[in-house]
Design a protein that fits this description.
Radius of gyration of chain C: 30 Å
Order of helices and strands of chain C: HEEEHEEEEEHHEEEHEEHHHHHHHHH
Distance between the termini of chain C: 44 Å
Number of strands of chain C: 13
CATH class of the largest domain in chain C: Mainly Alpha
Oligomer: heterotrimer
Order of helices and strands of chain A: HEHEHEHEEHEHEHEEEEHEHHH
Number of helices of chain C: 14
Helix content of chain C: 55-70%
CATH superfamily of the largest domain in chain C: MetI-like
Number of helices of chain A: 11
Chains: A alpha/beta (353), B mainly alpha (394), C alpha+beta (510)
Number of strands of chain A: 12
Helix content of chain A: 25-40%
Strand content of chain C: 5-15%
Strand content of chain A: 15-25%
């Protein structure tokens, strides 16, 4: 077992130059190797164990061939389902490892990482500069950023709605009253989009404020503008899809993993070239679909130190093929093999001396 | 039971008295402590809110708080809009539609069970309706948001048809009952009408829904929503005040019913009997004698129902669409104070403006419901003294 | 007072409208209960699998879920649950009813419940294990036998994990000596895992696509069209049991609700432990000790009114005072070594119980006061006249007579607390808490942990899951369970109160 660890480290040092460049050099695929045991440091006394939040990394050096411990993660609720499924698979592989997740929104991840209450922070957006700087200031090194999956917000209509595509300006004209993306006037009726529907009035559905999805859609879909007042704000993406599925005149936005055959995702039409970009796996991967985003895992790792067993095992699972199948199963877009390779480089190369 | 106390046993006697003092002290301290703790809620909320207005540099003006937009946006480089107006409006609107639905039903039910129902049936029925009150908001909200809303979206005409069919059908039932042979009428006594009307109502519901497409085609050219929008200016949103009103009305009916029924059946019997002896029908004696006597009680029942409707969280959260609109239309959504707190407070940074504003919203809710309930209590106290004057049981 | 004598014409329309409104209220209640019962219980029934042939020759196998009018056309469309997410990318199919050429229910269609990708619906071609291959009808029998073995192995593995490995890992956090033991247990689990793994199923969907399915991912298999009614009832019972006894799976979208039941009950128990003494104390003070003046009257009204204050306000209070206020201070004083990670400074079981205790305090106070007021004064006076001190009079005469009223109050409080969700969203409920707050680890009851709650589970699964349509049956079942719990509690309270009235109604006349 320790041989394979040594091998991994050898590879890591071989790739330490490519910290962020992600060269696609040929290398042997990393198989999940048995890990060294890092007994978890005694970290609490008496009866108040804050088990929900964390496990501090072990400093003990005893050797055995078990990965054991509790893995704490704090962050995005978009990623919650995926993290939980990864946790389930991980527990199957390593019986003594468990994942504890606190999914209260992307904004909670940097706070917890900076404070040191967790070492894993799933986020549905990249860290802001300020957050990164705060992390640097506290820990003296940048957080390790791993892209673990891709997601996109799909604009969905009822399955019988004949509409195929929207330009970004039309989308903005539908949802905002600031019209920052270049539309001339608001769109309130389906006839304005050339669609004949009984009733005719468009009913709008979206997420509540204080959700990352809401903010992301404002940023990319409304060019930073504000939503119209009559957008229904549902407390969950699944509820948005259910509402759109039940109402022929509805339009809404939701994450890819919430789509069902009861609704249809619209393609984005490029207003200049007229090309269609559907929120398909290929378009999301290539970034052509404008409402796509990466999902991240931020890891607190001191350069030059190996990750503790549970975390290492988790990240290996996440970037393995099995882990990416879970991504697909949950409904997100998995990384391509090349991207996975690239994330492997980051994981191995991040200051791995 | 208690040992006689010989004089030489004085220390024990003293010990007993001491114990009595101590226990009394303990109870007093505990009682006052609990009461004070409970009362502290309002004080604490006020303390949390105070910095919003007092602290230099970040105090908010009324103008800012009373703008028509509540959009606590978080995009960088943007100032959030904290207008409480839509929240207040939405809360009152939801309560209004809920009461509009619940009050007639609850009062009708109370009148029926207080005046017409045999006492034995009544004593069984009241607990049943209490069960209705115990129905958790989250269950009612889920059914309203995920079952009723899509259904209403497809059957709006059916729902309207129901509104017409049910009263008409009830009157038909009344007419038919009067024409029934006496033996049948004896089998279906009026006092039990609350029960045996149920299958008839169910039949009415089914037939109204079945007929509604034809009605829609006949009256509105097959498109009720288009007609509503063109002729009444009412746009239909799938999460709307009608649904919230229905669901929340369902939740407040039992509360109003129980209190109103108490008030009505508490009216001294000799009043109604006197009126009937003078030749009034039961309904006339109710309308002219019993109801005026019980009016304060009925009013306080409605007020307590209003308090409940204003503070209900889960139903509004799950069924209202949370749109910050300020219309009176029953076919459009609203955003209530309680739902905003539930959604946004877990994400708000402790001590920030947003956080304190949500505390302000909670304080407003607290003060409002507390005042309404106190008022209801005062009105009710008046009722009790009136009954006492009239010489009945309290 | 009475204008016209209309006696022969009866009493007009109003009494009928009044009776109708009562009937309508009852009908709505019955309708809601019926909906919950049918949908909630129906979820566990192995519904038949229909093989649908479309006009264009395509085939699908699924359970018809519901039918709707198409919005634009005159036709209707039907929703089928088809499973097979790994093959189709979705588990639903909308089919226009006009396009259906033929429907049949072949007996050989199987449904597999899997740990990954949801269910499979189609045909079983063969079972392969350790180089042996069984085909046809024999494969079905072999699969059933093998699944039973697997279930036993899985149970053994889970038991090992829960009872040995997990406590060991916790112990290791304090003493690193348990490694060898841990390694042994893990090796055992690995061995079990190896025995679980290995088998493969060769499956075919009804439209002819083949699939190799690792057997270890299959939990259960049944052929709904070939099941006899008793077998279906047995399957239904098994489904209900798993729902009650198992934890959630697949990010809450499948499995049972055991941790939520546990969390709800524990939270409510803790709450009643807090609320009973304080509520009774306050009621005794208000009714027996305090000077019955204007102030007491006002206080009584205020307490009564607090029962009408919205629950979310209590949640806000709990968040501000308990979580951030007291919890934050506790962390600073006693758990400073763990800061900035909060121990009590975040929502948890304790704070949730306290918040709900505060919320239900008025209920208990009012009920107990009612009971105290029903105790006739001559009982008190008699006791005092016999030389009892006030406390003796209270504890030996008055309180025993009030006991049913107190119990009623507590049960009503419990019923109210069990259904409250809004305040919990602020003070400590969790979407998924893998560890129940009670375990073998000192101090056994972990008051600072987050917990799962039935009511919040309904909200979470319905709105935060990935697919509402798929979650609905589970939500119905959970809602039914919650409603049943609350109904039982309320009925108990009603029964007690009835009993109490019967008893005390007789007292003053004695």
């Amino acid at each position: 077992m320790s041989e394979s660890v040594a091998m991994v480290y050898a590879q890591a040092s071989a790739h330490q130059r490519g910290t962020s460049s992600c060269t696609q050099g040929a290398r042997t695929p990393c198989r999940p190797a048995g890990m060294r045991l890092r007994p978890v440091r005694r970290w609490a006394e008496g009866w108040g164990l804050a088990l929900l939040l964390l496990v501090l990394p072990g400093l003990g050096q005893a050797d055995a061939d078990e990965v054991a411990g509790t893995l704490g993660a704090v962050g995005s609720d978009t990623l919650a389902g995926l993290m939980l499924r990864w946790g389930e698979v991980l527990t199957e592989q390593y019986p003594a490892v468990r994942l504890q997740l606190q999914a209260s929104g992307s904004a909670s991840a940097p706070t917890a990482l900076i404070a040191g209450t967790t070492r894993l922070g799933p986020m549905s957006r990249p860290m802001h500069e300020a957050e990164r700087a705060a992390f640097m200031a506290r820990h003296g090194y940048p957080p390790l950023e791993l892209e673990v999956a891709r997601d996109a917000l799909a604009v969905v209509v009822h399955r019988h709605n004949p509409l195929e595509s929207l330009t970004l300006a039309e989308l903005d004209a539908l949802f905002s009253d600031t019209l920052r993306c270049g539309a001339a006037a608001s769109i309130e009726r389906w006839s304005q989009l050339g669609v004949d529907l009984p009733g005719g009035r468009i009913s709008l559905h979206g997420r509540n404020v204080a959700s990352g999805t809401h903010d992301f859609f404002r940023l990319r879909g409304l060019c930073g503008g504000r939503f119209r007042l009559d957008v229904n704000e549902h407390p969950g993406s699944a509820a948005v899809v259910a509402a759109v599925a039940a109402e022929p005149a509805a339009i809404g936005y939701a994450g890819l993993n919430h789509l069902t055959p009861a609704v249809r995702a619209l393609a984005r039409r490029d207003s200049e070239t007229g090309e269609f970009h559907a929120p398909s796996a290929a378009m999301v991967t290539s970034g052509d679909y404008p409402l796509s985003r990466s999902l991240y895992l931020y890891v607190n790792r001191r350069p030059g130190e190996a990750l503790p067993g549970p975390e290492r095992a988790f990240l290996e699972l996440v970037l393995s093929e099995a882990g990416q199948t879970v991504v697909e199963e949950v409904g997100f877009v998995p990384l391509t093999p090349a991207e996975r390779e690239c994330q492997w480089h980051r994981l191995e190369g991040h200051g791995g001396r | 039971m208690i040992d006689p106390l010989p004089p030489r046993d004085l220390p024990r006697h003293q010990w007993r008295r001491l114990r009595d003092r101590l226990a009394t002290l303990l109870i007093t301290a505990g009682g006052i402590g609990v009461v004070v703790t409970v009362m502290a809620i309002g004080v604490f909320l006020a303390l949390e809110v105070a910095p919003l207005f007092l602290e230099a540099g970040r105090s908010l003006g009324w103008r800012e708080l009373w703008q028509p937009r509540w959009q606590p946006g978080t995009l960088p480089g943007e100032s959030p809009l904290f207008g409480l107006q839509p929240l207040a409006w939405g809360t009152l609107k939801a309560a209004f539609w809920a009461l509009l639905f619940a009050v007639p039903l609850a009062l009708g039910a109370a009148v029926h069970s207080a005046l017409f129902m045999p006492p034995r049936l009544r004593s069984r029925l009241k607990p049943t309706l209490e069960l209705m009150e115990a129905m958790p908001g989250v269950v009612v909200g889920f059914v309203a948001g995920l079952v009723l809303a899509p259904w209403l979206d497809r059957h709006l005409a059916g729902a309207l048809a129901l509104l017409i069919c049910l009263p008409v059908g009830l009157l038909l039932a009344g007419l038919a009952w009067r024409r029934l042979p006496a033996a049948w009428r004896h089998r279906l006594p009026h006092g039990w009408a609350g029960l045996w009307l149920m299958p008839w109502l169910a039949l009415l519901v089914v037939s109204a829904l079945w007929l509604s497409p034809w009605l829609e085609a006949l009256l509105f050219g097959g498109d009720l929503r288009g007609w509503l929008e063109a002729h009444a200016g009412l746009g239909y949103a799938s999460r709307n005040a009608l649904i919230v009103g229905l669901a929340m009305g369902f939740a407040v009916i039992p509360g109003i019913y129980a209190l109103a029924e108490d008030a009505l059946s508490g009216v001294p019997a000799n009043l109604g009997e006197g009126a009937q002896a003078l030749g009034a029908t039961r309904w006339q004696s109710l309308w002219k004698v019993v109801l005026p006597a019980a009016a304060p009680g009925v009013l306080s029942a409605v007020m307590i129902g209003a308090g409940r409707a204003v503070g209900e969280t889960m139903i509004v959260l799950m069924a209202s669409g949370n749109t910050g609109l300020m219309t009176l239309s029953p076919l459009e959504g609203m955003r209530s104070m309680a739902a905003s707190i539930a959604i946004e407070l877990p994400e708000a940074v402790p001590g920030g403006i947003h956080y304190r504003l949500l505390f302000l919203v909670a304080l407003v809710l607290f003060v409002f419901t507390f005042l309404v309930n106190t008022l209801a209590e005062l009105v009710h106290a008046r009722l009790r003294s009136r009954y006492r004057r009239l010489g009945g049981r309290s | 007072m009475i204008g016209r004598a209309r006696l022969p014409r009866g009493e007009g329309v109003w009494p009928w409208l009044a009776a109708g409104s009562l009937a309508l209220s009852l009908l709505m209640l019955a309708g809601l209960l019926f909906l919950l019962a049918v949908r909630g219980m129906g979820h566990f029934w192995p519904s038949p699998l229909t093989l649908v042939t479309l006009e264009d020759g395509r085939l699908l196998a699924g359970q018809a879920v519901r039918e709707e009018r198409q919005p634009n056309a005159a036709g209707r469309e039907r929703l089928y649950l088809t499973g097979n997410r790994d093959l189709d990318g979705a588990i639903w199919r909308w089919v226009a009813v006009d396009e259906i050429a033929e429907e049949s229910r072949p007996r050989d269609l199987v449904v597999l419940e899997r740990t990954r990708w949801g269910s499979f619906q189609g045909r079983l071609l063969a079972l392969e294990e350790r180089g042996e291959r069984v085909e046809g009808e024999a494969a079905w029998a072999a699969l059933q036998a093998r699944l039973q073995e697997l279930a036993a192995l899985r149970a053994e593995r889970d038991r090992l994990r829960d009872e040995i490995v997990v406590p060991l890992v916790r112990r290791m956090e304090r003493e690193p000596l348990a490694e060898a033991e841990l390694a042994r247990a893990s090796a055992r689990i690995r061995e079990l895992q190896a025995r679980i793994a290995g088998g493969r199923l060769l499956l075919e969907s009804v439209d002819g696509r083949r699939l190799e399915q690792p057997l270890e991912q299959v939990l259960r298999a049944w052929r709904p069209n070939a099941m006899s009614p008793p077998a279906k009832v047995a399957a239904w019972g098994g489904g209900v049991w798993r729902f009650l006894a198992e934890g959630p799976r697949a990010a809450n979208s499948a499995g049972g609700v055991w941790p939520a039941i546990f969390g709800t009950v524990l939270m409510v128990l803790l709450m009643s432990v807090v609320v009973t003494p304080f509520g009774v104390l306050a009621a005794i003070y208000l009714n027996e000790i305090a000077h019955q003046g204007r102030l007491t009257h006002l206080v009584r009204i205020a307490v009564r009114n607090l029962a009408g204050v919205p629950s979310i306000v209590y949640g806000v209070f709990g968040l501000g005072v308990f979580v951030y206020g007291i919890g934050g201070s506790l962390d600073e004083w006693f758990f400073a070594d763990q800061l900035p990670s909060p121990t009590f400074g975040t929502g948890g079981l304790l704070w949730a119980s306290l918040t709900l205790a505060l919320l239900t305090l008025p209920v208990v106070i009012v009920a107990t006061e009612e009971g105290l007021a029903r105790v006739p004064d001559h009982q008190r006076e008699g006791a005092l006249a016999l030389g009892a001190t006030r406390v003796e009079m209270l504890t030996r005469v008055v309180l025993p007579m009030t006991a049913p009223a107190m119990l009623t109050g507590v049960i009503l409080a419990v019923a109210r607390a069990a259904g409250e969700v809004a305040p919990l969203m602020l003070v400590g409920v969790a979407k998924l808490a893998p560890q129940v707050p009670v375990d073998g680890d000192f101090p056994f009851l972990h008051l600072e942990r987050k917990f799962m709650h039935l009511g919040y589970h309904i909200y979470d699964v319905a709105f935060h899951g990935s697919d509402v349509q798929a979650a609905l049956p589970l939500v119905y079942a959970t809602a039914l369970l919650l409603v049943l719990v609350i109904l039982v509690l309320n009925l108990t309270a009603i029964f007690l109160r009835h009993h109490l009235r019967a008893r005390h109604g007789a007292l003053p006349r004695r």
